[in-house]
Amino acid sequence: MHKLYGFAALSIIFVSVLLNVQYVDALGAGVVVSQVQTRSLTGGSASEELLEIYNNSDADVDVTNWCMKYGSIGSSNPTKTLACFEHSVPDAGNYVFLPKRSAAVLISKAFADKYPKFGYDLIFSSGLSDSERWVSLVDQNTLIVDMVEWGTNVASTTAEGGKEAVPPTSTQLIQRKLISPAELQDTDNNYNDFELASPRTIYNYGSVYELEDFCLNIDDIQLVVPDGYTVDNARNCSPPPVDVCDNLDGLQVESPLGYDIDEHGDCVMDICLNIDGIQQVLPDNMELDVDNNCNYHDECLNLPDIQSKIPSGYKIGANNDCLLDLLPLQITELLPNAIGVDDGNEFIEIYNPNDSDVVLENYVIYTGTNLTVYNLPTDAHIGPKKYVSFLNSDINFTLNNTSSNVKLSSSDGTIIDETPIYSNPGDGMAWALIDGAWNYTNRPTPGTPNLSSLIEVKTKEVVIVKSNLQPCAANQYRSPDTNRCRLIVVASSSAPVPCKNGQYRSEETGRCRNIATDANVLTPCAEGQERNPATNRCRSIAVAAVLGASDLAPCKAGQERNPDTNRCRNVVSSVPTAAYAPEQTYEVSNNYVLWWSLAGVGFVAVVYGVWEWRQEIVKFIHRIGSFRHLNK
Fold first, then answer.
1. Residue 23: other Cβ atoms inside 10 A
2. Least confident of 332-341, 486-495, 610-619
């Protein structure tokens, strides 16, 4: 325990001495190589080697990471490093010092083994040659502090002064000449500064010491932390805190929030720290934030200047932004693909649904997927319930012919209206809002209400061909497939479906025909005749007056008038359907009454036919007479 107290006391004395030491920079410090021994001087091993350096100055020198280098004559590059002065804890801020007018001894391992009680500061591997070699002391940046070269006493490009020192012998070493008891000669000339000498009986060693700088951030080496300072893990020392507010209780290392230092150095309450001078009260039209900064109340944070109230023509939007309060307008028509040249023919139409005139100064339009913005003319406006259109010669916009759309916005970026995307409009086809829906139209109407497309209807021309074919018989009709006369089959159980209005049933075909069409192809009746509405044939007006509404002969017993053909037909009773397949029977008929009946019906038919076709028969006879006359 007494040894510990003694060591502590010596440490305090040692530190006190060091606090008074003057530290100098390495370059020009005066540390020199003082002795070189290349072998045993008593006939021992050639590896018993010794080097000595000496602080030839009056100040302690920082030799941290200085090294002894060894090399050959004629080359400045060392062949090896012998030893270095390093701190036992090689950290930043740890130093090694060589005291003033003191030496450090370096010996080889063989020397240490031969003389174990010989004191030294550093040990190195043996290998020094007797001639044509040099040793140098370099600093932490490998700059040469001192160098000695020994050899054959000839000129040298590497030796100080250009000439080598005399080489050591088997009984003598070389040493720097002594000027006074504590000062060695150093003329930067190896030949002049060194001489042969015998080894000393006493070598001073152990004077090299280590230091730690406790405050790396403070100039000079701080062997202890200064009074009132604190040190962190990085060995940075902070000065003691200063009370900036002597008038306030407690330690104030900075002005408390809401306080400022006045002209007397006192901390006083300042409501507005961001305003020059001390504000004891909140200025008018200002508000206080959480950092005790006073700012003017700004209604429009998005506008460059402070707005104490909402400007005229603006409204509050999201995030307390002031947006232009513009009336709503509608984009109603576009012409992106004009017929011919697009320049000067494309247009955008806008409609004003409001009851007041709208000036377009603060409106802009965007076109295309890149949203290119175009300003509307500054003097443009739209009357109430009116349309206005802008050509691409009025505004230098471009409408893509393939696919795009148009947006109407305020100048501050609020979208007012936009069109759906159109796709590949045809030449001259406008993209228009019609009856609340967007459609293409072939009738562009810039500046006026939009119109739907016109649809062209192509009608077929009806050609009526007058036939030269002979008329079919009364009980026949002309087949539309073969153009031949075919027998009319009279239905026995049901009547045909009645014809539509404006139609009648043809006697020849039994089919419905248009009265208007037949009227166009029938030959007009002769003078004194009229067309029978029942048969569509010409008849005498006098006979019609005598017979009344109809000149048809009454049907015979067992007959009825067909309402479709206006002719008499046999009454056929309905035959029930048998529940079995009928078989054919054969019987010889002796019914002569049937034949007389058929003959009578045929005679009546011939008389009726002659009467009905009397005009045609007369014309036919006249044609035959004309034909025979021409043949003569």
1. 15
2. 486-495
For the stretch 147-191, pLDDT in tens is 999 997 677 888 999 899 999 999 999 999 999 999 999 999 999
Amino acid at 460: K
Q: Mean pLDDT, the chain, as a whole number?
A: 81
**415-to-326, 389, 403, 411 alpha-carbon distances in Å:** 11, 19, 20, 9
Are 194 and 177 in contact by the 8 Å Cβ rule? The answer is yes
Would you give the end-to-end CA distance of the chain in angstroms? 183
* Angle (CA) 423 428 432, round 5°: 60
How far is the C-alpha of 469 from the C-alpha of 471, rounded, in Å?
6
Report all structural domains of the chain as residue ranges with CATH numbers, in order of start.
19-207 (2.60.40.1260), 328-441 (2.60.40.1260)
Least confident of 99-113, 193-207, 335-349, 612-626: 612-626
User: Residue 538: which of 622, 621, 614 has the closest Cα?
Assistant: 614
- Neighbour tally for 502: CB within 10 Å: 10
Separation of alpha carbons 470 and 118, rounded Å: 162
For 141, other C-beta atoms within 10 Å of its C-beta total 9
Does the pTM of the predicted model rise above 0.90? no
Nearest to 95 by CA among 17, 143, 20, 23: 23
Alpha-carbon separation of residue 278 from 257, 350, 392 (angstroms) = 13, 58, 61
Which residue reads 């936009």 in tokens? 418
Which string of b and e fits 471-490 if b means at least 16 CB within 10 Å? Answer: ebeeebbbeeeeeebeebee
Q: Are 172 and 41 in contact (CB under 8 A)?
A: yes
